[in-house]
Amino acid sequence: MTGLGACRTGQARTPSPPAPGSLDPGGNPVSTIVAPVSRTLPARRVAAPVPVDPAPAGRGPLDVLGVPGQVNLDYAATAPCARAAADAVAELLPWYGSVHRGAGALSRRCTLAYERARQRVGDFLGVRPDDHVIFTRNTTDALNLLARALPSGGKVVTFASEHHANLLPWPVDTVRLPVPGSADAAVRAVDAALRELRRGTDGSAPILVAVTGASNVTGECWPVADLARAAHRHGARFALDAAQLAPHAEVDITALGVDYVAVSGHKLYAPFGVGVLAGRADWLDAAPPYLVGGGATRTVGAATHDVGWADGPGRHEAGTPNLLGAVALAAVCEALTSVDRAALHAREQALLAHLRAGIAAAPDVVELRTFGPDSPRVGIVSFVVAGRDSAQVAAELAGRWQIGLRDGLFCAHPLARRLLAEAAVRSGRADLPPTALRASIGLGSTTQQVDRLLSALATPR
Ligand SMILES: Cc1ncc(COP(=O)(O)O)c(C=O)c1O
User: Fold this and answer.
1) Ligand 1 centroid to 140 CA: how many Å?
2) Most confident of 39-48, 298-307, 393-402
3) What distance in Å separates the CA atoms of residue 252 and residue 123, rounded to the nearest whole number?
4) Which atom of ligand 1 lies nearest, measured to the CA of 162?
5) CB 64 within 8 A of CB 52
6) Which domains does the chain have, with CATH numbers?
7) From CA 314, how far away is CA 324, in angstroms rounded?
């Protein structure tokens, strides 16, 4: 099953609050300290911090590192580091040597580790045999690279709901489609836009449709395979921003039928500073190098412009690469490949449903959404507390409850502003703040952590 399929099957439902003494979906005891939250909560509650359980144990390489007592509900910004990543880095550190630049044993080992990492990440993403897997710094870097590789005269189609990383790198004449009201409407909008762009042409101009797999604001999943099919019907290509989808569900380029995929290591339980652009080789090999310098060249002559650029990933990876980042990311990819991802997904969906149910019941809290309330989504929820400044709420959650989450417009200003306006209409509240809060969960998240947030939201100031 592809990531989208998994996303589709995992619809959030509204469960009953857990009974005291019961187990959460990961088999951890559900906190009995926090009472189920409802709109009719008594006026006074104990504000003392609730003890937080450790991350669920027993998954070995996919245990996440963290600081005891700190509740990380900000996985969508940066996920904690998985043990697999930390171990891979620790193992390689004594072998520290140059990559692609030395004949010594250390250097050869590092070069091999780097190229193996490329292979493993490519396998994880289900690349086709002739696709390139290019290491970048992050998703932003990957999408900027793809923008630079657009053939001349190429057009881009995207949605106003995208993260800035998938809005801003594209040419100024990019078609930015309005935020659709449903997954089906998104597919229809792409179809209509491409028909319009192709009208009166011979259909050969390059067009790229670039869309996210899961929204960083709402967690909602986009109909990736259907969008890619719509693009291909019109002879266009499809780029998937999988920064938020890949940490939660399988992303397989071949199965989804997409042409390019971009991910960030730091959202995939690996360290900062590594990302990937994977996909069709032809545009990438024809484009000027994204970075110029050592490693991107085949030959350099005496004259300034006498340069033969390399083909393949090296063309866009000038300079000494981020070996440890690549190896750490590959280790996480391997660990994720060898576990039952459907089970992980189901566990996360149950926790997400608990979080959303609690948020829906908390006083004055309004959730943000683009599609219907039951549309498939990954472990991300954005919301506002009516009458409260979101930055102040976030600061209070951090200071008083040791809960880390995100506030603001989440680098998706057009979407976040629109959803805030819609939330005001839907809730009938005139006192919604101009920015939002976002809670996001993943591998190390527990019911107790979610309950702590719900308890904090239910506690009067
Ligand atoms: C959907 C989406 N795309 C792209 C990005 C950019 O990722 P990075 O900051 O790792 O480049 C993010 C980051 O939050 C994101 O959520």
Assistant:
1) 6
2) 393-402
3) 9
4) 1
5) no
6) 3-81+340-458 (3.90.1150.10), 84-337 (3.40.640.10)
7) 17
pLDDT grade for 34, boundaries at 50, 70 and 90: very low
- In angstroms, the CA 406 to CA 421 distance is 19
Q: Which amino acid is at 306?
A: D
Ligand 1 proximity of 111 Cβ (cutoff 6 Å): no
Kindly report, residue by residue over 284-333, the tens digit of the pLDDT.
Answer: 999 999 999 999 999 999 998 899 999 999 999 999 999 999 999 999 99
- For 231-290, the pLDDT digits (tens) are 999 999 999 999 999 999 999 999 999 999 999 999 999 999 999 999 999 999 999 999
Q: Print burial letters for 300-334: b (CB count within 10 Å at least 16), e (below 16).
A: eeeeeeeeebbeebbbbbbeebbbbbbbbbbbbbb
Q: What is the mean pLDDT of residues 33-54?
A: 33
Q: Which atom of ligand 1 is nearest to the CA of 77?
A: 14
Count other Cβ atoms within 10 Å, centred on residue 207.
23
Question: What is residue 89's predicted lDDT score, i.e. its pLDDT?
Answer: 97
| Ligand 1 lined by 144 (C-beta under 6 Å) | no
> Chain centroid to CA 53: how far?
25
Does position 20 have pLDDT exceeding 60, yes or no?
no
Q: How far apart are the two ends of the chain, measured CA to CA in Å?
A: 46
The answer to whether 333 is a known catalytic residue is no
Instruction: Decide if 260 contacts 237 (C-beta within 8 A).
Output: yes
Q: Yes or no: say if 219 and 380 are a contact pair by the CB < 8 Å rule.
A: yes
Amino acid identity for residue 83 in this structure: R
Residue 264, classed as helix, strand or coil, is: strand
- Which residue puts its alpha carbon closest to atom 12 of ligand 1? 243
